[in-house]
Amino acid sequence: MVSHVTAFHGLIQAKHDIICKASELASSGSIKLIKPPALDSASGTGTAFALLVNDVSYATAERELGIPTSVALVNDILLAGMGRDVWVDDQFIDMSPVDSVQAFLDWLEAVPVGISLDTLQARFIAAFLRGVLAGGDGLPLAENIPATLRTVMGEVATLHDLTETLATDWSSLRKRAIQVTRELEHTQFEPLAVFVESIVWPTRTVPEELPNAFQRLQGAIRRQEGRKSYTQEELDLQTNYLEAVIRFQKVNSTLSAHEVVAQLPEAKMLGDFLKSERGQQVKRDSLEIGSQVGASIATYAYSIWISTTRSIAV
User: Fold this and answer.
1) Which string of DSSP letters, residue by residue, matches 40-96?
2) Per-domain residue ranges of the chain
3) Scanning 61, 81, 141, 202, which has its CA 20 to 30 A from the CA of 213?
């Protein structure tokens, strides 16, 4: 999908004005790292682009700022992923680092005036995959990646770097990516394999898939890392409950979910654990650890987003 717009509509003054407004929004704490698009007129808070144009429509951002709809969405998704929740005073509160919002200002500074950003997503994907293959700044998802997945990741990065590609190239690679995902199902590498499989298509053709794929990757890694807070016995309680529900529903398909749970001893055992002091503590630990790991993935990805933007030539 080609937007036919250039950044800041080619106007240096427009970029200056937009950065000044974004700086004011950042200083006042108005920009929130939450699921986009969001705009609360009463409090004057919201996501980055919604606040800049006072509208939740990314089409408005493209029309007024010269930032393609898909680029603005990916930007906000990456920013939202940097949000970090910490348990304080019996509740989770937003403890997102101040430099997370500053990163948005750094990105705006990095965007060259008058540049087309239509290739940014493809270049970002290539740079992100290569960064993960190189170690990903110590991220959990970058550790001990199997050779088959590494090969596919490298080939996906290469295709996204090319200006012109053939449909047959993508089709062949997608088949291999799907096979690798199947081989890695139920392993720690499944989230990364699914992410790679999800982006094996020409970026300019289906740009909306990238933010969805990134959110799924981040969410899966958050859950995966969060589960490490539980003992195997505690994880078995959850597994036994889910398996019991599936077995019960096969022979009692007319019952509601509430009625099913009420008749399962596995549900009572899991419920008792979750209500216990240990259950409450480990749940908090799991969510907090998952939040930290998820934020680290987004922070790393956003650094790639900025450097890739800066490298685009006019």
Assistant:
1) ETTTTEE-HHHHHHTSS-HHHHHHHH---HHHHHHHHHHHHHT--EEEETTEEEE--
2) 7-110
3) 61
Tell me how many helices (H) and strands (E) the chain has.
14, 4
**Cα distance between residue 107 and residue 7, in whole Å:** 12
Virtual torsion, Cα 196, 198, 200, 202, nearest 10 deg: -130
CA–CA separation, 220 vs 191, rounded Å? Answer: 6
Q: In this structure, how many other beta carbons lie within 10 angstroms of the beta carbon of residue 20? A: 10
Q: Which residues, at least 6 apart from 5, have a Cβ–Cβ distance to it below 8 Å?
A: 62, 66, 67, 68, 116
Largest CA distance in the chain: 68
Both tokens assigned to 177: 């990516």
Paired strand residues for 87: 92
Contact call for residues 10 and 115 (beta carbons, < 8 A) = no
Q: What is the pLDDT of residues 106-149, one digit of tens each?
A: 999 999 999 999 889 999 999 999 999 999 888 888 889 999 99
| Spans of the chain below 50 pLDDT | 314
CA atoms within 13 A on the CB side of 95: 10
Q: What is the pLDDT of residue 173?
A: 93
DSSP string, 228-273: GGS-HHHHHHHHHHHHHHHHHHHH-TTS-HHHHHHT-HHHHHHHHH
What is residue 78's predicted lDDT score, i.e. its pLDDT?
A: 93
How buried is residue 125: exposed, middle or buried, by Cβ count under 10 Å (0-12/13-18/19+)?
buried
Residues with Cβ within 8 Å of 248's Cβ and at least 6 positions away in sequence, in order, are 255, 260, 263, 264
Q: Within 162-255, where are the H helices?
A: 167-183, 190-198, 209-226, 232-251
Residue 77 tokens, joined? 């998704």
